Amino acid sequence: MNQPDPGTPAPASAPPRPASTTRDLTTGPIAGTLLKFALPILAGNVLQSLNGSINAIWVGRYLGENALTAAANANSILFFLIGSVFGIGMAATILIGQSMGARDLAQARRVIGTSATFFTVVSIAIALLGLPLARHILAAIGTPAAALPLAEAYLRFIFLAMPFLYLFSWVSAILRGAGDTRTPFAFLLLAVALDIIGNPLLIFGIGPFPKLGIAGSALSTLIANAVSLAALLWWLRRKDHHLWIEWKDRALFKPDLAILRALIVKGVPMGLQMVVISAAMIAMIGMVNGHGIDTTAAYGAAGQLWTYVQMPAMAIGAACSSMAAQNVGARNWSRVDATARTGTMFNFLLTGALIAPIILFDHATLSLFLPQGSPSIEIARHLNHIAIWAFMFFGVTMVLSGVVRSTGAVIPPLLILGFALWGIRVPFAKLLQPWLGVDAIWWSFPASSVCSMLMSIAYFRWGRWREAKMLQQPAAVAVPAEVPSEAPSLVADQAHNAPTDP
């Protein structure tokens, strides 16, 4: 950015900077601000799920079962790779949020420079290592022999796409921390649209495009994310965004060890939550499989609905984390507490609004995934009536965990989740089956979710999360960058170059 020297006033003739898309989350009505901030995150989650479903239709219905199996196995690797850096992205979001709340743009730019280098190096390393090892990785997870060549062709393109996938997610996380969820959603919409259009073109070789089969689906994902990332970076540069780092400021890309340590030390526990959840899901499906194919099909159909039911809680939890992070940076603790209360209220309203029609029209909704007359429909209706309410309690945990993590307290939420799943849900389902039958599995969901909610409330009320901090030592001191006058969250004097302890 072409920023004048901080001590020199800008000439009167200097053109004004474009209005910032970032949002000040430390002022204004909490409910309205939180809702507007969360809705683009929710819409983005829905978009990504629909994109995956549409791509699965193209592959499964037109290329056959082997191709669908290949894509499912390759995508399991993709989800693991995305999940492995999920926590690092959240740590970057929180660090940016705290810096913006503290009115410290210089610190925010240092976080951006360090995290940009980290994500670029990691994504390129994964791509280079994954290309020659793709077949071995797929064989290690037991990919069926008939699907292995197809899965390898698909996964190779996915590895090539990793730098674009990682960096797009990283830029989105940075913007969310700065209070902007609309811009990431707009460019995610572009990526999804390009992927949906590109799938049939590259799978079937329509017009001038080559016929690549299942590899075309992965190549479509690569192209869509590369174009969307390039467009997003171009947009930030063209708008002269106050978080954009120009070449003359390239020294910011040299990793700051304090920030890098915070990204890893705080990010890894948040990423481990994905591992804990995935492992518990595998344990649960293993128990469900023991009750026959009809029950497994019913559980699978219900799970399709659960994917959408949990989205409001996830979006609100992410929004609360960003809002709380800015207010932690501003030391506005009453607003942090109010964010938690408001997020909890929205969770009940939005999640409940999804659960109610699913219960009222359960036969119709489940019939979308199961054939008419299937005995699995009644099984799915029964288990849904028991288990689906768990997502309201799960949402409270997501909201409170998002708030407490905003200070840097990342270990207690991981321990609470781990105990709820592995100390309550899995043992409950396994040990009570001799008395309750398969219902023990369904009742384990609300039982563990209620316990998780109560533990989260207790830690929020009496825990020492307000004393936590993201950075264990100050980041390198740099001359503060000029704050754009159009960004109301950054107009205060920058008295310190790093966030002070909360």
TrEMBL record:
GO terms for molecular function: antiporter activity; xenobiotic transmembrane transporter activity. Residues 1-25 are annotated as: Disordered. The chain crosses the membrane at residues 77-97, 118-141, 153-173, 185-206, 212-236, 257-285, 305-325, 346-366, 386-403, 410-428, 440-460. It is found in: Cell inner membrane. Residues 1-18 have a biased composition (Pro residues). Keywords: Cell membrane, Membrane, Transmembrane, Transmembrane helix, Transport. It comes from the Bacteria. Its main location: membrane. GO terms for cellular component: plasma membrane. InterPro entries: MATE_fam, MdtK-like, Membrane_Transporter-Flippase. It is a multi-pass membrane protein. This is MatE: MATE efflux family protein.
